[in-house]
Every structure is written in C-alpha cells, then in structure tokens.
Write a structure and sequence with these properties.
6-stranded mixed β-sheet, Rossmann fold, 14 helices, alpha/beta, 10 strands
Length: 326
C-alpha cells in the first residue's frame, strides 16, 4: 500500500523545496515531565507547517497535463498554504482551494501572496470537502486530498525518516492526529527503521475520530466535531491512513482544550516557540502525563506554528492571570 521506498522517493521529489527541520532537545520540558524530550520543529518548515511536504510530493506526482489544467483541494488552512507554495514552486500550477468558513484569518491571509483561487465554504470540514469535490467533478480537474492520498502520506513520512536519522535510539514518537496523513507517514517510516519504536497519536477531545476509530476498529471517516482551537485536527479520520497503520499504531490519547492551551503557552515561555493548537497537542500529552513515557527518549512532533495572533494573546493573558491567581 505504502512502503519505505515511497517515502525515499518523496524526499527526492522535494529536493530543496522543503526544509529538513531541527530536532531540538528541550531541557525545560525534559525536567518537567521526567522524559528525555526532543521537539521536531515543523513550525519552522516552509509555510509554517508540515503540510507542505505532502503538497510538494502530490503536485510533483501529477502528470504534466493534470498540472496544466489545475488542481482542487480542501483544507482547514495549513494544507491550503502548502498547496499554494508547492504550485508556485513547481511551475505555477493553477490551484483552487476550499476552506471552512471558520478558518483563522492568519491562515487565509497567508494565501494572499499566492496566485490561487479561494472559496470559503461549509461550517464543518465534511461540508467543505463535499463542495470541493463537486467543483472538481464539474470542471474535470485533478484532486489533492489532504490526508487520504498515498502521495500526500509519503511526503509527510519524510518527517519520520528525518527523526530516525537524527535520533535512531528514540523510544517513542508523539504525533498529532487530524485526518491521519501525518500519523500514517511517520508510522510507516519509523517502524520500517525500528519496528519496536512506539508511535502514539494525540488528538483533541473535541474531535476524537481517530481515537474512536482505533478503539472500536471502525473508521470514523466523517465526524461532527465541537469547537476547538485545533481546527487543523478537526473532522473525520481517513480510511487510507486507518488501513495503513491500524496494526502498527501503539496508542491514541486525547487532550482537552485547556491542556492544549497550556502546551501552547509552555512552548512560548520555555522554548520561545510560536506553535498553533494543533501543533502543541503532542506536548500537551506529555505535560499532562497521558502517555506513560517517564524515563524514555521521546520525540514530540510540533506540526505547525500558524496561530492567530489574537488567540495567542488570549492564551498568554489567561495563562499569566491563572499563574497570578486572578
């Protein structure tokens, strides 16, 4: 279905269009949680998110004719920016993007520097996706699925490859889960190199589609979620990543909105890192001892840094007020 060679091909396709991001040891987090904690900093990636990896590999994999006609995609934000970047970097491919109505302004604003067409449509991810597929079928264009696409998953898998090259003796990798493309790619890459490594997915309580999928052995491809600041993780869990990793994944845990907010603030205060809610869930799982990894060498994937500035200010003010006992 997807093999280690596909991930090596994806890395070759990316060339110098995608950064090899730092794997940074965190002394403050290690002391606080009792593990040896390393942070895979995809918030420092091109466009501020890991999503660009899969986007570059997917567009590179389309035929010349498909690229000339254009590509449609749906995204809660980061994948849209990744697609826009990849389209420009690979020769000006026309891209039509569909995004939920509630997408943070910071992510929509990033698209203004690119020559792409954007439609804001749908209250929930599934509605946005349905609208994008209707448009794609009506116009006969190619489609790039943000997580249920093997080319996309292979691109995200280069993160796992880089982690294992930089820290081959790591005991566990904590991976944020939305639709599952990141989880699928990292799991395939890391387990190919070290079958004994633990891969633990982290999802938000407001949208536990992957958690339920693995618990009940039934893929929740569509899920009506509650409000969450981790909009990039909201919605269903893809059948493609589910089938890919259902026998490989070690655990999936959930974190709350408040735990995620605490992780965003901790990364800002302790590591001087600006991280969005979706990107901070792996650290939240460590901070609130959801994973039982004390004494272990752990990598937390920080999947993105595109947080709305007003939300970041709100989180910071709340955290400081709580500390002051106000």
């Amino acid at each position: 279905m997807l093999g280690f060679k596909d991930i090596l091909v994806a890395r070759r396709n990316m060339g110098n269009l995608v950064r090899k991001t730092p794997l940074q040891y965190s002394f403050p987090l290690s002391e606080r949680v009792g593990s040896e904690v390393y942070l895979k900093l995809e918030n420092l990636q091109q466009t501020g998110s890991f999503k660009v990896r899969g986007a570059v590999n997917r567009i590179a994999g389309f035929s010349a004719e498909e690229r000339a006609r254009g590509v449609v995609a749906a995204s809660s934000g980061n994948f849209a920016v990744g697609m826009a970047y990849a389209a420009r970097a690979l020769g000006g491919v026309p891209v039509i993007l569909f995004m939920p109505l509630g997408t943070p302004a910071s992510k929509v604003d990033k698209l203004r520097e690119y020559d792409v067409e954007v439609f804001l449509s749908g209250e929930q991810w599934d509605d946005t996706y349905d609208d994008s597929k209707d448009y794609q079928r009506e116009h006969g264009l190619a489609y790039a699925h943000s997580y249920a696409d093997l080319e996309i998953i292979a691109g995200q898998g280069t993160i796992g490859l880089e982690i294992m090259e930089d820290l081959p003796d790591t005991d566990a990798i904590l991976v944020p889960i939305g639709g599952g493309g990141l989880l699928g790619g990292v799991t395939v890459a890391a387990k190919a190199i070290n079958p004994g490594i633990a891969i633990i997915g982290v999802q938000v309580e407001a949208s536990p589609s992957a958690y339920l999928s693995f618990k009940e052995a039934h893929c929740y491809e569509r899920y009506e979620y509650d409000f969450t600041i981790a909009e990039g993780l909201a919605g269903g869990f893809g059948i493609v990543p589910f089938e890919l990793v259902k026998d490989l994944i070690d655990d999936v845990v959930l974190v709350s909105e408040q735990e995620m907010r605490e992780a965003v603030f901790t990364l800002l205060e302790s590591e001087q890192l600006v991280v969005e809610g979706s990107g901070a869930v792996s650290v939240a799982a460590l901070l609130f001892d959801k994973v039982g990894l004390k004494g272990k060498k752990v990598v937390a994937v920080i999947s993105g840094g595109n947080i709305d500035i007003e939300l970041l200010l709100e989180i910071t003010q709340q955290s400081l007020s709580r500390r002051a006992g106000l």
